[in-house]
Amino acid sequence: VGRERPMVAGRKNRAMRCVCAPAGPEWHRFFTVEPEGCSRVVSPTLHFTKAEYGARIARTRQAMEARGIDLLIVSDPSNMAWLTGYDGWSFYVHQCVLVGMAGDPVWFGRGQDANGAKRTVFMGHDDIIGYADHYVQSTERHPMDFLSQCIAERGWSRARIGVEMDNYYFS
Fold it and tell me: Which residue, 33, 35, 77, 115, has fewest beta-carbon neighbours within 10 Å?
């Protein structure tokens, strides 16, 4: 997918592991490209233990099961933070957390905000999906169209989906 190369960082010219994004329109599905053109491995800053997040997700899944929901789309920023630790001011664009009945949740949002997710959520980078900027304010495409593709690719195309709708942007 990508290629590894050393990257010079700062004045001390320390080499860092860097995975550069492949060319093509779908690069955003795998990498978030920083200004230098590389994605850096960064440990997240968690405000709670992974066990605490696990307990929260378990309680959420119990509520999902009681309501017959296989996949929950969480879009309220405070609930996204409660479930994953995500802490970002990116709620002006489409974003959400997908909670299935197994595995870690999946963070979905604008590609440039995926770096913030990598720094604040407990999940691995495989569970962080960023969409390209050509989806933002477009009259030709919508981020939720891309989200529906991601849902299908993860095997949830026939899932009973619950959507969190108690928020200001739903009418």
Answer: 35
CA–CA separation, 23 and 21 (whole Å) = 7
Measured in residues, the chain has a length of: 171
Kindly write down the DSSP assignment for every residue of 3-27, as one continuous string.
Answer: EEEEEEETTTTEEEEEEEPPSSTTG
Are 74 and 164 in contact by the 8 Å Cβ rule? The answer is yes
pTM greater than 0.90: no
| Eight-state DSSP code of residue 126 | G
Kindly list the distances between the CA atom of residue 41 and the CA atoms of 98, 122, 127, in Å, as whole numbers in the listed order. Answer: 23, 14, 14
Bridge partner residues of 100 (DSSP): 71
Q: Which residues contact 108 (CB under 8 A, 6 or more apart)?
A: 95, 96, 97, 98, 129, 131, 147, 150
Q: Tell me the CA distances in angstroms from 24 to 14, 46, 88, one per residue in order.
A: 29, 33, 27
**pLDDT band at residue 160 using 50, 70 and 90 as cut-offs:** very high
